[in-house]
Design goal:
A hairpin with a 4-residue loop joins strand 3 and strand 4. It is built from six helices and eight strands, in the order αβαβααββββααββ. By secondary structure, the chain is α/β, with parallel strands linked by helices.
Length: 214
């Protein structure tokens, strides 16, 4: 994590304007944990923007018959996310939405990205997905990071996540294997290569390994 933070800081120091860092990975990979740790490490020059803030509202998903698939690539406002990233790239204050996992809705205009934040750390499952319309985001990233976690470990984490939200063991397994795990495999199989790959079972931690693919 220290090495990655240093790499991002050096990138920001070497160029004018804002730097957008995209952290991608499967559901349960630890993207939020890593992104928050990076922003804390980088200090006031950095701000966090999460893809989850662009979840479609449950009423829209119900109308489309897609509530059961919430979290899949087609259940996000990708155009809205792209527009916010373009505004962030241009500089100045930008207000962004935040997803509240406990009430299961996105809260609009919930976080302020101040003008002095020169590093934007964005995290989400599909930031590197090589499928339209997600592939329109690729050109916006100044540095890309992918969290590579074994599928068996993702399964364990995702089941535990649903347990934490009060689901029974059977329901937690159903939610994980009917939607989360297929989405995880889609991310793993259909994302473009990142400039930095973090391979770890528990992130962040001393066992995490960061590599830069040739």
């Amino acid at each position: 994590m220290e090495a990655l933070a240093a790499r991002i800081a050096a990138l920001a120091a070497a160029r004018p304007g804002r730097v957008l860092v995209g952290i991608a990975g499967a559901p349960g990979a630890g993207k939020s944990t890593l992104a928050e740790a990076l922003v804390n490490r980088l200090g006031p020059q950095a701000a966090l923007v999460a893809m989850d803030g662009f979840h479609l509202d449950n009423a829209i998903l119900d109308a489309r018959g897609r509530r059961f698939a919430k979290g899949s690539p087609d259940t996000f406002d990708v155009a809205g996310f792209e527009a916010i990233l373009q505004r962030l790239k241009a500089g100045g204050e930008v207000i962004v939405p935040v997803f509240d996992r406990y009430i299961d809705v996105s809260r609009g205009s919930a976080r302020v990205v101040p003008p002095e934040a020169r590093i934007i750390v964005a995290e989400g499952n599909y930031l590197l997905l090589r499928e339209a319309p997600w592939d329109r985001l690729h050109k916006l990233w100044d540095l890309t990071v992918f969290l590579d976690v074994p599928v068996a470990e993702l399964e364990r984490r995702l089941i535990a996540r649903w347990h934490h939200h009060g689901l029974s063991d059977a329901e937690a397994h159903r939610r994980a294997f009917d939607n989360d795990i297929p989405n995880a495999r889609r991310v793993i199989d259909r994302s473009v290569a990142a400039e930095a790959v973090i391979r770890s079972v528990d992130l962040p931690g001393p066992e995490a390994q960061v590599s830069s693919p040739d």
